[in-house]
């Protein structure tokens, strides 16, 4: 009798939820995975779908958006300029107008021209530059991270922020509820007791479950006085300074930005802050007049499930298809969708120099196995693949030809494309892109190239594990 009851509940679940999933018109592979989960796991499948499976893309899912965000006015003006036939880009970037317009329309990323950018290699350079900027703050510090740990470097940051509050500086900290879950309650209490406005983005509150649990705030964003900004791959924790013996040397890239683009960073942070707290901030104190005259065109692309479009995925795809000479990708996690696979294979078969640099020492075993399942077809098309062996690779970089560079928090994987809140800088500058290319080639020297014949000789059990991991990659 019990068996028939379970079977009946399972059948109703498959019919009702299966219809919902089918009508969402997702990619076929995602639809098949979820239908399979519902059939295989009668009750657990339902719970997993509520937590991780519900489609949450689009602004209607996120009801709180800052109505007075100056970023919107800036974008609207540039969109009007385009319609009136005026170029929003610098003459040096006319050939990239297609990508620039894509960022403006799908990612709401205004074009900025007068900027200075400093590439920060690894944790030492990042934290030295960050601490100098924090020490110089006079009005406000806005800081948001996926991971913030209460270890040695976390304590150092807290000391600076606490001291700045005593000097009259407004400090606002936004942390992801999952990524920073290891922070002790006493650490957050110390933050707030010191006068720091610290908030959680999608806090984890058991036993309550929410479909937002699988949506994470993956951005690493700092704005100081509306004049200096930082984004990239480095969170706050001792491992990012290569202090974790298990993870070893930590290879990452961050950038420091001064100039017009900082206003975009500020708008993104304030909109995120408004979503969490309902409080708005604007005015010259937060958006000061910039004095940078140096020309370095760039766009700040923020993406997430609150957008109508998967803007990071669209940008990566468009960038790859625009390439005329070379495509260099550095990412710890490589789980692309079919459009990127096709774009990369087509570029390589067309004679372009396509190189992919990924982790050689797996940080997450399942993700690593899923990543390996894509290699054979890429290698057959002529893509050169390298595995970084010096330590943990965490840099997220895309380099197109010798003049377009993307640096930020987004990995080249399905989670960054559809589930996480990300932020990347797209830089249209030959000199800075050249510097990043040299860094990429230096990382290649610390890597092992994956050869097609050798890769094809891996065992049947390894192939099976990779295929299973790839099957569930839409859920990773």
Could you characterize the architecture of this molecule?
The structure is a single chain. Helix 5 packs antiparallel against helix 10 (311-322). Among the domains are: 2-55; 113-297, 2-Layer Sandwich (Endonuclease, Chain A). The strands form 3 sheets. It has a 15-stranded mixed beta sheet with strand order 4-3-2-5-6-8-1-9-18-16-15-10-12-13-19, sandwiched between helices. Strands 7-14 form a two-stranded parallel sheet. Strand 2, helix 7 and strand 3 (170-176) form a beta-alpha-beta unit. The longest helix has 22 residues, at 2-23. Helices cover 42% and strands 21% of the residues. The protein has 476 residues and is of the alpha/beta class. The protein is globular.
Give a short overview.
The chain is an alpha/beta fold and 476 residues long. Helix content is 42%, strand content 21%. Helix 1 (2-23) packs antiparallel against helix 2 (28-40), helix 2 packs antiparallel against helix 3 and helix 5 (97-106) packs antiparallel against helix 10.
Features of the shown structure:
globular, two-stranded parallel sheet, Endonuclease, Chain A, 17 helices, 476 residues
Q: How many E-type strands?
A: 19
Indicate the CATH topology of the domain at 113-297.
Answer: Endonuclease, Chain A
- Specify the biggest β-sheet: 15 strands, mixed
Note the gap between the termini: 37 Å
Low-confidence stretches: none
CATH architecture of the domain at 113-297, please?
2-Layer Sandwich
In percent, how helical is the residue content?
40-55%
Tell me the fraction of residues in β-strands, as a range.
Answer: 15-25%
Radius of gyration: 23 Å
- Strand arrangement in the largest pleated sheet: 4-3-2-5-6-8-1-9-18-16-15-10-12-13-19
User: How many DSSP helices?
Assistant: 17
């Amino acid at each position: 009798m019990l068996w028939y009851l379970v079977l009946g509940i399972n059948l109703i679940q498959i019919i009702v939820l299966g219809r919902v999933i089918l009508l969402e018109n997702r990619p076929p592979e995602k639809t098949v995975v979820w239908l399979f989960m519902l059939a295989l796991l009668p009750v657990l499948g339902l719970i997993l779908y509520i937590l991780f499976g519900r489609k949450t893309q689009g602004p209607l899912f996120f009801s709180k958006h800052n109505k007075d965000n100056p970023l919107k006015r800036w974008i609207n003006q540039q969109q009007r300029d385009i319609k009136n036939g005026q170029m929003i880009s610098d003459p040096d970037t006319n050939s990239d107008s297609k990508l620039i317009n894509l960022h403006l329309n799908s990612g709401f990323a205004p074009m900025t021209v007068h900027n200075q950018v400093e590439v920060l290699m690894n944790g030492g350079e990042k934290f030295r530059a960050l601490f100098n900027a924090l020490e110089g703050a006079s009005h406000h510090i806005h800081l948001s991270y996926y991971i913030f740990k209460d270890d040695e470097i976390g304590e150092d940051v807290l000391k600076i922020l606490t001291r700045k509050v005593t000097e009259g500086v407004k400090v606002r900290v936004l942390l992801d509820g999952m990524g920073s879950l290891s922070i002790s309650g006493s650490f957050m209490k110390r933050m707030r007791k010191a006068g720091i406005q610290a908030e959680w983005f999608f806090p984890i509150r058991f036993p309550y479950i929410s479909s937002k649990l699988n949506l994470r705030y993956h951005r690493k964003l700092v704005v100081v006085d509306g004049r200096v900004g930082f984004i990239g791959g480095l969170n706050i924790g001792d491992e990012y300074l290569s202090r974790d013996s298990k993870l070893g040397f930590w290879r990452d890239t961050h950038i420091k930005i001064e100039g017009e683009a900082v206003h975009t960073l500020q708008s993104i942070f304030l909109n995120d802050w408004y979503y969490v707290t309902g409080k708005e901030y604007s005015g010259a104190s937060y958006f000061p007049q910039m004095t940078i005259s140096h020309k370095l065109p760039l766009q700040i692309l923020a993406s997430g499930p609150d957008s109508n479009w998967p803007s990071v995925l669209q940008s990566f795809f468009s960038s790859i298809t625009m390439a005329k000479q070379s495509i260099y990708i550095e990412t710890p996690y490589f789980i692309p969708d079919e459009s990127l696979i096709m774009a990369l294979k087509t570029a390589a078969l067309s004679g372009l120099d396509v190189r992919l640099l990924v982790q050689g020492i797996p940080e997450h075993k399942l993700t690593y196995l899923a990543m390996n399942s894509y290699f054979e077809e890429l290698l057959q098309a002529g893509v050169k693949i390298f595995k970084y062996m010096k330590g943990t690779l965490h840099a997220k970089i895309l380099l197109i030809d010798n003049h377009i560079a993307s640096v930020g928090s987004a990995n080249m994987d399905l989670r960054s494309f559809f589930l996480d809140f990300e932020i990347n800088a797209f830089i249209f500058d030959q000199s800075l892109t050249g510097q990043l290319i040299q860094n990429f080639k230096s990382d290649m020297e610390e890597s092992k190239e994956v050869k097609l014949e050798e890769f094809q000789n891996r065992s049947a059990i390894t192939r099976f594990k990779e295929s299973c991991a790839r099957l569930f990659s839409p859920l990773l």
